[in-house]
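hi! just following up on the protien thing from before. the input was this:
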Amino acid sequence: MKTALVIGGSRGIGRGIALKLARSGFDIWLTYHSRSDAAEAVKKEIEVMGRSCEIMGFDVADFEAVKTALEAKCDANPPDVLVYNSGIIRDNLMVWMTKEEWDAVIDTNLSGFFNVTKTVLFPMLREKRGRIVVISSTAGQIGQAGQVNYSASKAGLIGAVKALAREVGKKGLMVNVVAPGVIETDMTADLPEKELKKLIPLNKFGVVDDVANTVDFLCSDAQSYIHGQVIGINGGLAI
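and the predicted 3d structure came back as:
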């Protein structure tokens, strides 16, 4: 049975990805930071499908916590898929941004990717198989005012994945980035929808399934030659 490790899978895009992969036949290891209730709800939805779901709570920014939660587990049974979706925002103009706002976003969004992938990568390489999909953002491609920290972290993920793809491709691993634009979730509920739509050629926000379906395709047997790429899901916001 194939297993997918979904980092940050309790809400929003992560939840949609976990559910979609479960529908495609994956058992799910789902991680969360603080919302155990949301994680439990996703677990129940997945189990109704007849798939198994194990939930784990830890802070991806804490290397030792990640190692404790994942190292032995992944060494014994490496996941077939790793989806890194963990991310936070601490928006502010650069001139007013605090060191804490910068550090919090970089530590979770970028260093968290290192902490998780470092822990999982060797067992996947040992098996000479696996798919890694990292959720970046349009902000990492074109930048966004008020999000210097967030844009830097998401651009960093793109660079990291491109380099990692060059390292591991010959070992049978495929690594890609999915970069969503404005997707309808709790995090975007308060955005000025009318004004933002004017900037999007398709004149609409995306939905979670737009992202989840793309991740599912990248993790499926339907594709075997997409590697080191950035797949934008943004309605044309970044062209």
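Residues 99-127 form the longest helix (29 residues).
The first strand starts at residue 3 and ends at 7.
cheers
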